[in-house]
Specification:
single chain, 451 residues, seven-stranded parallel sheet, five-stranded parallel sheet, 15 helices, globular
């Protein structure tokens, strides 16, 4: 396997040298083709992913494949990414973009097709080659996705081996890949991300999700419930930016619960019943494998709790203990509920939960009070804050907001990541700057500088 990975890298270097000579227009045509082939085959790839991994659902994975391909291409299509990307400016600087070389991308079982597509589009936008190391439990759909991409790119005369996939993935093969490529993108669990950062290569990883959703008292609770539930049950709750806990005004808690029930939530206030869910939801502090990406009905059956077949999410009242496992990430359609009396208390609850898991990732605020929004934003240690939208359908980028479309969400130093923004093509280029001396510039005196 070691020899195979090394051979893949040699071939990737040969292909990348040719591709790097292509003009921007032809590179963009290639990038577009990657997104379009996934868009056109979104449902087929969604079916394959669900069948192979047992996670999520076909309808939402189809929408995810379509939406992300559409959004990423719309973001990339007019941007310069090779050669002179910024001509000489008033500071006498010229900026030139150059490829990073060979990208190694480690992709997850929770969202194989979409993550591969994003990484390939970003890498090729910078005139790089890319080698995918898929999760072993999603290897078939991952290989199929890469094969579809390559079949389309072959029609365009692209160099062979520019986009490759390890067909027999393993920890050994992935570690070998990370040691020999130029840049690593790791989308997966903490162990894999830590391995990427320990590889000695420049790496971009992600932190755990545990989105805290603070609900103000000046909003339509019915509208909030609809949005939160829509996002929480999307793809059976495996998206890292999905709402995890709702933090609600204590004086209106019953109104909020009623609104959520009306939108398809099954509410659990009895702590004995809640304990049944705690037992099946978690294993050693993390989401138990048996419930990851499963629907609410399946989760309830595992907990031996009868719920209506129409239930979209399970809403469980926290016991408010500092060590309540419900404060952590739940990768299925389950929400924890907390109550607050003051905004400061709401912020404290969110921060406490983020310290357990998800620090640096995302917070959602439902409010019409700009002062409250700013107060929360200034107080929570996260890289993204979504306003009046579901976390899972917003912070990864949409056509209606300014978040950069991506499948990889950096969490900054809070989450032990190298970036605190949405990973994109800019992280896949080296920038060279040419500086000219400005002979006519007036140089300030020391008095002017220090005065």
């Amino acid at each position: 396997m070691t020899d195979l990975v090394e051979d893949m890298v040699i071939k990737a270097h040969q292909a990348q040298k040719i591709f790097a000579t292509w003009p921007q227009e032809k590179i963009d045509d290639v990038v577009r083709a990657v997104g379009k082939v996934v868009f056109d085959n979104a449902e087929e790839l969604a079916i394959d992913a669900v069948n192979e991994t047992g996670m999520g659902n076909v309808t939402d994975k189809t929408l995810k494949n379509q939406g992300k391909s559409r959004n990423v291409w719309n973001y990339l299509k007019d941007k310069k990414s090779i050669g002179v990307i910024e001509p000489r400016d008033d500071q006498g600087m010229i900026t030139i973009a150059k490829p990073v070389g060979i990208v190694g991308a480690v992709t997850p079982t929770t969202s194989p097709t979409m993550t591969i597509m994003c990484n390939v589009m970003f890498a090729l936008k910078g005139a790089n080659a890319i080698i995918i190391a898929p999760h072993p439990k999603a290897k078939s759909v991952s290989i199929k996705t890469v094969d579809m991409i390559n079949a389309e790119l072959k029609k365009m005369g692209i160099p062979n081996d520019l986009v490759q996939c390890i067909e027999e993935p393993s920890i050994h093969a992935t570690n070998k890949l990370m040691s020999v490529v130029d840049v690593i993108v790791a989308t997966g669990g903490p162990a894999m991300v830590n391995a990427a950062y320990s590889s000695g290569k420049p790496s971009f990883g992600v932190g755990a999700g545990n989105v805290q959703t603070i609900i103000d008292d000046d909003v339509d609770y019915g509208d909030v419930a609809r949005k939160v539930i829509t996002g929480r049950c999307f793809d059976n709750g495996i998206i890292c930016s999905g709402d995890q806990s709702i933090i609600v005004p204590k004086k209106d808690a019953e109104k909020v619960i009623k609104a959520f029930k009306e939108q398809g939530a099954f509410y659990v206030g009895d702590q004995e019943v809640a304990d049944r869910f705690r037992e099946v939801l978690f294993e050693n502090g993390y989401t138990a494998k048996e419930v990851v990406g499963k629907c609410a009905k399946t989760v309830a059956e595992l907990a031996d709790v009868p719920i209506p077949d129409t239930t979209k999410v399970i809403l469980i009242r926290s016991n408010d203990f500092p060590d309540d496992v419900l404060r952590s990430e739940k990768m299925c359609p389950v929400l924890a509920l907390f109550e607050y009396e003051t905004l400061e208390e709401a912020i404290a609850i969110a921060c406490t939960n983020l310290e357990i898991r998800g620090k640096g990732h995302t917070c959602v605020i439902h409010s019409n009070n700009l002062k409250h929004i700013e107060q929360i934003g200034l107080s929570v240690p996260v890289s993204r804050v979504a306003i009046n939208e579901p976390g899972s359908l917003s912070v990864g980028g949409s056509l209606k907001n300014g978040f950069i479309p991506t499948g990889t969400l950096g969490c900054g130093s809070w989450g032990n990541n190298s970036i605190s923004e949405n990973f994109n093509y800019k992280h896949m280029i080296n920038t060279q700057r040419i500086g000219f001396t400005l002979e006519n510039r007036v140089v300030p005196t020391d008095e002017e500088i220090w005065g």
